[in-house]
Amino acid sequence: MTTETAVPGTGVLAAALFDMDGTLFDSEPLWDVSLADFAERLGGTLSAEIRRRVVGSNLRDTARIVQEDLGVAADVEESAAWLLERTRQLFALGVPWRPGAQEVVRSVRGRGIPTALVTSSHRVLVDEVLAQLDPGMFDTVVCGDEVARPKPDPESYLTAAERLGVDPRDCVALEDSRPGIAAALAAGCLVVAVPEDGAALAGGHGAVVAPLETVTVDRLISLLADRIG
């Protein structure tokens, strides 16, 4: 794929980097089910507060946080493996796009701008989603279990930019959670936050907050140029 040659940091959009769960795909309701099942398996009930707290977290931290909240001393690795398989089963039934998400990805690709899927989810979950999409929709995919330090560490975003051969300062990242926003900002990306509940990210935490339906490729280009200008 070709794109306009850019000098790093000059405001030319070199790549668009997309989070998966809750950003492009409406998978959070499926996580609601698997997490509730996980809590029930541990003999408790998942609270709304803990559900909000684990959004954007990696799988191991999610299992640990739920166990600690329920006061259960179970093996975290075994719990994470159970939660992963339960979620995979749900993903295999189909994961819908969020409204406007497919149009954003297609419009970016239509302008010759490279794309990456950058997610905290494990590869087995990502593969279930990718199997439901047109081949080649993303030029590279970085999964949570393929980096040493998942979000909120910037490694996943830095890895995506490196694979695409671009400077992260010339990338726009679309995210929906605080860990994801922190990761992309630390990598140097311009971050556009598109949470379903915009009030959940009041102040933006360093990101531009916008409804996903209002995001266009021209707006992404303009936002990046404005940051440099």
TrEMBL record:
<dbReference type="GO" id="GO:0016787">
    <property type="term" value="F:hydrolase activity"/>
</dbReference>
<dbReference type="InterPro" id="IPR036412">
    <property type="entry name" value="HAD-like_sf"/>
</dbReference>
<dbReference type="Pfam" id="PF00702">
    <property type="entry name" value="Hydrolase"/>
</dbReference>
<protein>
    <submittedName>
        <fullName>HAD superfamily hydrolase (TIGR01509 family)</fullName>
    </submittedName>
</protein>
<dbReference type="InterPro" id="IPR023198">
    <property type="entry name" value="PGP-like_dom2"/>
</dbReference>
<dbReference type="InterPro" id="IPR006439">
    <property type="entry name" value="HAD-SF_hydro_IA"/>
</dbReference>
<keyword id="KW-0378">Hydrolase</keyword>
<dbReference type="InterPro" id="IPR023214">
    <property type="entry name" value="HAD_sf"/>
</dbReference>
